[in-house]
Request: fold
Amino acid sequence: MFSSKKLVCLPLLAMLAGCVSSEKAVSKKDASAEGVPENELSEAVVVAPDTASFEVSQRERHMLWQVSDSNSSVYLLGSVHFADPTFYPLDTAITNAFDRSDELAVELDMSDTAVFMQIAQQSELRGKLPAGQSLAQVLPRDVKKQLDSICASWYLAPEVLYGFKPWSAAMTLSSVAIMRLGFDPNLGIDFYFLRRAKESKKKVVSLESAEDQIAVLVGEGLPDSLGIYYLKSTVSQMQLMDSSVTLMMGAWLKGNDSLFREAMYMEPDTDSLLEAQIEELVYISRNRKMADSIASFLTQDRKVFIVVGAAHMAGKGDNVLKLLRDKGLTVEQH
Reply:
């Protein structure tokens, strides 16, 4: 199904899946034609139309929380890893919070070339099937037929995916689908703030390691049967992609975490046990580490602006916001 698991996709996945392009995606050439200088697009300083700017300024809430203990506070922003020019400029409530902070914390500093290359190389290496094996050999016939049909409609040779393990194929498929809707990883909220941090010479802190991210991208430690289930549910619900992603992006722009959660869980679980295993790898175990790191920032009285995927805040159960409140911290949405 297209649920929370599909929005874990990192900008890296879209780059690895660069075999397709979106007609809706804004290229540098398109931007220049519309009066946006190429250098500004490269820095993600994209000026939205006047009407969009007006809507942004009128928002009452954002995917932004202030987390406080008795004598200090940090800011926590839910990110979408893919976005488009209409997300910019960000509201001043968000950018001012960033400006007031001394450090930026992200899931992983993907602006670090060494880190990026490690993730790219290891994800491909560990996400590929052994030589001589093909995804087509392990998929149920009906799933392979659906996958082939999707690839045909996207003018994508299915063989591009056949070399991947089921989990990695599902991740890549979802990333390509999001890109086809016109959302660009280079305009993602986390990338935007990584660029801002570099410009303002703020220290960047990674909440996770490259190994943590790779484990999520390739489904490390999970049985092959779970990977097949994940790919099967991704393929079977691909037709819901448009409405699900559109709802999520709209919820982010409105700062409506309840609506974001609704978009994440539009479809009922078909196998609650398998879904729970996926949820644990993709979110819950990571949420615990993130909450611990955020609490430690407060203990050390550090002024940190934290940017992690919005699904970590909006997910069911032990999301980051709940875990922080469980620690006795004050969490207020801005």
